[in-house]
């Protein structure tokens, strides 16, 4: 099975490269998502069996100032990719986010729950979801959350960096979600690719790490497991103002992924240990 991946340097793309080194990875220099037609042309030229889009505009706060660019990259480009895949008759796998939800309530979000993004990043990702569905081809949209790995920018690396100079941190305690190891997302995308190539599954799925925690709870676990002596004080969101609002409830129900693909939510604590080991070698 020949797999074409958009993205090369990001968290998920890096883990895909580790697990499927034989796949073809397109960097920004190979296919810039700010040029959706070029992305479609790349698919037509490569004629792969499956396409995975692991590239995205992920700067949540900066997106508030650059919504047009974020929408082209996260919305128009995946839509163009999905149309090119539909033309070729191959499945398209796309990664989306918990930030399409508004974070109300306390139950985990079901796949069919109403979406209402709070910020520009979430809106841009929603445009992508809608474009992928509208393309009409075989597709899977995998909504995940709070991604971390040893590569790129993420909360784990931010916390470890801050711990070099601080012995106490204030971290929001009223945003609840599921940290998700990029390595598990990559493995899930590859398993889904094989099944979708065989005509199984398709649609929108949720894949967030378990058990649910807060950012403060996640931070405490990072410092405990990394052996860093940092005191984490849990604070309400209103005491940590950011340009983009984040959902308070980001928990996602993964039952349809289990039904269609036999995949359960990953335990992020095991993934955290693996990332911490990765960072020390
Ligand atoms: N990070 C998270 O916490 C979460 C991420 N997601 C989703 O998961 C997916 C993967 O995210 P993640 O691995 O964390 O992403 P990263 O932020 O680690 O990497 C983003 C990747 O996208 C590439 N990229 C950005 N803009 C462009 C562009 N204009 N043209 C080509 N490539 C571009 C980057 O390339 P370059 O190195 O050249 O900038 C980089 O390879 C995305 O769809 C994201 O929305 C969902 C939930 C949570
Ligand atoms: C650094 C820091 C952050 N925070 C808060 C701010 C925010 O509410 C929360 C997480 O901050 P970050 O900016 O690291 O995370 P953020 O960029 O919002 O992460 C999101 O990225 C996008 C791409 C997604 O799709 C989401 O699933 C989610 O992972 O932690 C603190 O409370 N204290 C701190 O010292």
Automatic annotation (TrEMBL):
<feature type="region of interest" description="Disordered">
    <location>
        <begin position="234"/>
        <end position="253"/>
    </location>
</feature>
<keyword id="KW-0560">Oxidoreductase</keyword>
<keyword id="KW-0521">NADP</keyword>
<comment type="pathway">
    <text>Carbohydrate biosynthesis; dTDP-L-rhamnose biosynthesis.</text>
</comment>
<protein>
    <recommendedName>
        <fullName>dTDP-4-dehydrorhamnose reductase</fullName>
        <ecNumber>1.1.1.133</ecNumber>
    </recommendedName>
</protein>
<comment type="function">
    <text>Catalyzes the reduction of dTDP-6-deoxy-L-lyxo-4-hexulose to yield dTDP-L-rhamnose.</text>
</comment>
<feature type="domain" description="RmlD-like substrate binding">
    <location>
        <begin position="1"/>
        <end position="279"/>
    </location>
</feature>
<comment type="similarity">
    <text>Belongs to the dTDP-4-dehydrorhamnose reductase family.</text>
</comment>
<dbReference type="InterPro" id="IPR005913">
    <property type="entry name" value="dTDP_dehydrorham_reduct"/>
</dbReference>
<dbReference type="InterPro" id="IPR036291">
    <property type="entry name" value="NAD(P)-bd_dom_sf"/>
</dbReference>
<dbReference type="Pfam" id="PF04321">
    <property type="entry name" value="RmlD_sub_bind"/>
</dbReference>
<dbReference type="InterPro" id="IPR029903">
    <property type="entry name" value="RmlD-like-bd"/>
</dbReference>
């Amino acid at each position: 099975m020949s797999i074409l991946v958009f993205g090369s340097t990001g968290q998920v793309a890096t883990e895909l490269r580790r697990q499927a080194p034989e796949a073809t990875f397109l960097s920004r220099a190979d296919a810039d998502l700010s040029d959706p037609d070029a992305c479609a042309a790349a698919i037509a030229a490569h004629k792969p069996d499956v396409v995975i889009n692991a590239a995205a505009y992920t700067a949540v706060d900066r997106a508030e100032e650059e919504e047009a660019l974020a929408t082209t990259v996260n919305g128009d480009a995946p839509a163009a990719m999905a149309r090119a895949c539909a033309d070729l008759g191959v499945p398209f796998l796309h990664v989306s986010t918990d930030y399409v939800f508004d974070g109300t309530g306390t139950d985990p979000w079901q796949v069919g729950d109403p979406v209402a993004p709070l910020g520009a990043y979430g809106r841009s990702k929603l445009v992508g979801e809608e474009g992928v569905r509208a393309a009409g081809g075989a597709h899977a949209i995998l909504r995940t959350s709070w991604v971390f790995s040893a590569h790129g920018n993420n909360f784990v690396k931010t916390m470890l960096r801050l711990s070099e100079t601080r012995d106490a941190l204030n971290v929001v305690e009223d945003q609840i979600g599921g940290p998700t190891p990029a390595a598990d997302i990559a493995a899930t995308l590859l398993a889904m690719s094989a099944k979708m190539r065989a005509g199984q599954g398709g649609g929108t799925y949720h894949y967030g790490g378990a058990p649910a925690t807060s950012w403060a709870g996640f931070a405490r676990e990072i410092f405990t497991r990394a052996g860093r002596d940092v005191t984490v004080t849990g604070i309400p969101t209103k005491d940590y103002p950011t340009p983009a609002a984040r959902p308070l409830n980001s928990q996602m129900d993964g039952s349809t992924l289990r039904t269609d693909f036999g995949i359960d939510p990953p335990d992020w604590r095991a993934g955290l240990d693996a990332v911490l080991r990765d960072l020390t070698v």
